[in-house]
Amino acid sequence: MLGFPIALLVANGFEWYAHKHLLHGTPRKGQPRYSPTPTNMKSHWAHHKVVRTTAYGDDGYREGLKNWRVRNEVTSLLVLTAGTTLLLPVAPFFTLGTYYAAGRYFYVHRRSHLDPEWGRKAIPWHFDHHMNSNQDANWCVTRPWFDYLMGTRVISSPDLMESNPLGIKLPASIEAPLNKLARRFLPKTFERLEENRVLEAINQSKGIALPMPEVTEPVPS
User: Fold this and answer.
1) Closest CA to 161 of 171, 174, 148, 150
2) Mean pLDDT computed over 36-43
3) Which three-class secondary structure string do you get for 76-132?
4) Is 213 part of any domain?
5) Which end of the chain lies in a sparser environment, N or C, as judged by fewer CB atoms within 10 Å?
6) Is the CB of residue 69 less than 8 Å from the CB of residue 61?
7) Total structural domains in the chain?
């Protein structure tokens, strides 16, 4: 049964990595961004453009699989879970955990963009990903775990931020010592998070917004 929580941790780490390197692509001076999955990158930046002009909404999710961006997201998740299915005979709970993680990813991501106010409150780290001055940060979607571990959480405002690094509602008796322990064992991370917050506040006060890359969308099939 230990495989299930391990799967959730691995899924969150992959979520961070894939979002950063596959969906956003690696910036290259004088050249387009590079991604080993260029169609996914183009689909994702098209999603960003929609969200940026609709105050975080994306009605493409209402179209379901008729929308090429939604179809691309679902296909990617199915491919990933098909891969983890190979582990089912030797690691059944881990495999089930990846199924749960993939399903939850789509549910949370879809709902947040169909109900922006819910998304803003439920997953503020993803709201910040889209609406901050720099969209190349806040890589996690379902939980902010690896953004805290990697120092890539950029908080736009204290009233919007999650109350603990797990991004889960917890009783005060658990949350307070958890926050204290996190700051004790990850002091450099929280220093970086504070630097990120200050820089974002400066950018917002000056009306600075880093431009999104220009990508050519593939013709939807």
Assistant:
1) 148
2) 94
3) HHHHHHHHHHCCCCCCHHHHHHHHHHHHHHHHHHHHHHHCHHHHHHHCHHHHHHHHC
4) no
5) C
6) no
7) 1
Query: What H or E segment, with its residue span, contains residue 199?
Result: helix 187-206
Residue 100 main-chain phi, psi, to 5 deg: -60, -45
Q: Which residues pair with 31 in a beta bridge?
A: 28
3-state secondary structure of 31: strand
**pLDDT above 90 covers what percent of the chain?**
90
Residue 77 domain-assigned (yes or no): yes
**Single-letter residue type at 110:** R
Q: What is the pLDDT, as a whole number, of residue 158?
A: 87
Domain range for 33? 3-206
Q: What is the CA radius of gyration of the chain?
A: 18
219 belongs to a structural domain: no
212 found inside a domain? no
